[in-house]
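Figure 2 data, in text form.
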Amino acid sequence: MKWTFASSASTGLVTAVVNPSSSDFSADLAAMLEARAERGVKGWLHQIAGTEHFVRVLAPKGDAAEMAHSGRKAGVELAGLLAKNKIKSISLEAGESTFDVAEGLALAAYRYTRLLGKKAKDAWTLEALEVVGLNADDAKRLEVLMAAVTEARDLINTPVLDLNAEALAARAEELGKLYGFKVTVLNQAKIESLKMGGLLGVNKGSVDPATFSILEYKPENAVNSAPYVLVGKGVVYDTGGLSLKPSNFMDTMKCDMSGAAAVIGTLCAVAGQGLPVHVIGLIPATDNRPGGNAITPGDVLTISDGTTVEVLNTDAEGRLILADALHYAKKYKPQLVIDLATLTGAAARAIGPNATVAMGNAGREVWNKLQASAAQTHERLVEFPFWDEYNDLLKSEIADLKNIGGAEAGAITAGKFLEHFTDYPYVHLDIAGPAFLDSPWGYYGKGGTAVGVRLLTDFLANVRS
């Protein structure tokens, strides 16, 4: 989508205006809008008055986060009307709500069309969005953020046939050059030399090699002396391995690298916006298949820190590759490590697509800042307990740990498993619920949402030291 920013609407474009005055359109239209508002009628009014346009009254209430959410919802409504009427270009002016309405419109208007083939000519896409009245800083921030979210959603929606671990790493390299962050890709031989037994073990059933990508953005004006490290689960396709998933749970498993996509998208946004914060992203990547010499339930793997893990379920593979990455993060002596992973069905069953399950050992100051960003972006977090008693469920008789904790508290025991490989302030985000949608919800249509990009970009934008 092409973005333009202007001080006034361009002649000939379809316009969308929030809270228009009588000078914007006819007095009759202004009176009609006022009457609708008095009756409590909400939504956009679609008018043809010489020039096609959409108008809406919006009087958001509440705090800044609630007002932003109201603006985005108005943008989502507008996207639906544009799609219905097959309008591909729009000029938007929404006063104080312009940023939020434009953000909601862009999120809801996203379409993954690259593989449509013959259907592409009939597919609706929003090709051009003119935003009226934003200052230069907000304009850049909005355009970069939405581009970063789009990059991440495209990655999630791309099938494994076109996006194996090597292709994911290559795309990260391309985006690093485009947005201005450094990318180093460790190949299979280097991964073997680092004895990353979790990543190598999961990869044993694949014909494609694993990769381990290191993304780094370190501006000269960084306000933090120790980096923030983001770790993203990069399982580019998950069959479950020999613990094979049912077929009706497998068709969307290209989304199992949503954590990796979110890390890449966040680096794009942070670097593209020029935020003064040192950020590192770590992405262990592989597919999880039952082929060849795949690991079996009962096998024991040795993680790169020397911990032995009894694998009781090969479909609990994400924590195995993340374990190596979390251990690798220790070398940076980080200020904070946050991982993002479509890790457990337990998290999705607990709260659905409404929020991300969060847990960890970071202090309350970190949690308060994360929750503030979660509220502002409406990428909400539900904090689960992280008590040490849950460690008892991970005890193995033949190894240091087992990779599943039993039938209960599955999301929490997965997080406690990961904590074993940390020695720093740590937050675990299980995005299994909101990462990939089977039907439209909130700001998003079906498919990948890139949840985490907007949350973490806002969080990192507010880093002060």
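Caption note: The mean pLDDT is 94.
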